[in-house]
Amino acid sequence: MTTDPAPPAGPDPAPPAGPDPAVQRALDFVAVHHHAVLVTHRSGGGLQTSPVAAGVDADRRIIVSTPSRTAKARNLRQDPRATLCVVTDAWFGPWAHVDADGEVVAQPDALPLLEDYYRRLAGGHPDWADYRRVMIAEDRVLLRLTPRHAAGPAATA
């Protein structure tokens, strides 16, 4: 009776990669601290920066509301790379740097997402019908940013 030889011993396969702990800590930070500077890439290669209010959705993506005609929305439509620097209300103190891939969700799909964004950042609204009317009139979109990498004291602590 013959048996096949055992395969040569080698290193154990690497365990599957889980969520990056620094990204998870940064998302936890963004969920509480909403002041951020968003950096997007212009079509000519330069960078564009915008102060924004950022939150985190149920799928652990960073979310930002903006009118559809802004440079940040236009830039993300052309190049999905984005970077945020998120700070506390005090400005100095802990902060998080997040590199992400962005997408722009336009109306009408954006409307329920914008309501969720508002609830996450500000709680209830006194007149949701008026809020919806304004979001449509301003042609607001939702930027969804999927983090790839995070750094900074809030992400690495």
Walk me through the structure.
The protein has a single domain, classed as Roll (Pnp Oxidase, Chain A). It has 157 residues and is α+β, with helices and mostly antiparallel strands. Helices cover 30% and strands 34% of the residues. A 6-stranded antiparallel β-barrel has the order 1-2-3-6-5-4, surrounded by 4 helices. The protein has helices spanning 21-32, 71-78, 110-122, 128-137, 153-156; strands at 35-41, 47-56, 62-67, 81-87, 95-105, 140-151. It has 5 helices and 6 strands, in the order αβββαββααβα. The model has no long low-confidence stretch (mean pLDDT 91). The radius of gyration is 20 Å and the shape is globular.
What topology does this entry show?
Elements: H1 21-32, E1 35-41, E2 47-56, E3 62-67, H2 71-78, E4 81-87, E5 95-105, H3 110-122, H4 128-137, E6 140-151, H5 153-156
Antiparallel strand pairs: 1-2, 1-4, 2-3, 3-6, 4-5, 5-6
Brief summary:
By secondary structure, the protein is of the alpha+beta class. It is built from five helices and six strands, in the order H-E-E-E-H-E-E-H-H-E-H. The protein has helices spanning 21-32, 71-78, 110-122, 128-137, 153-156, and strands at residues 35-41, 47-56, 62-67, 81-87, 95-105, 140-151.
Query: How much helix, percentage-wise, in residues?
Result: 25-40%
Report the mean per-residue pLDDT as an integer. Answer: 91
Note the total helix count.
5
Give the termini distance in whole angstroms: 60 Å
Question: Notable features of this structure?
Answer:
157 residues, alpha+beta, Pnp Oxidase, Chain A, 6-stranded antiparallel β-barrel, 5 helices, 6 strands, globular
